[in-house]
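Reviewer 2 asked us to include a model.

Predict the structure of this chain.
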Amino acid sequence: MEGKNENMPHKLTFENRTSGTITGVRDVTSFDEKEIILLTTQGKLKLKGEQMHVKRLDLKQGEVEVEGKLEEAVYQSGNSLKKEEPLLKRMFR
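Predicted model (structure tokens):
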């Protein structure tokens, strides 16, 4: 199944920072009221906010609908899919 949605186009659309649709989603890594972490065809995507909620999830189609007050959307590169390290530790390698 992973190979099927590997080539899906990725799209992130939000309306008034309260509801949105994300396509090209491979998996939902974690979610709670403050943060939703998705693995997309373009890398790891963190959505941070308040009262965050996964409204609809269809991994077969690679789509997720979310609701809540979106405050931040951050993509992470493939290298940062590992456990995150503190900034100071990364600086002094």
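The longest strand covers residues 43-58. DSSP finds two helices and six strands in the chain. We have added this to the supplementary material.
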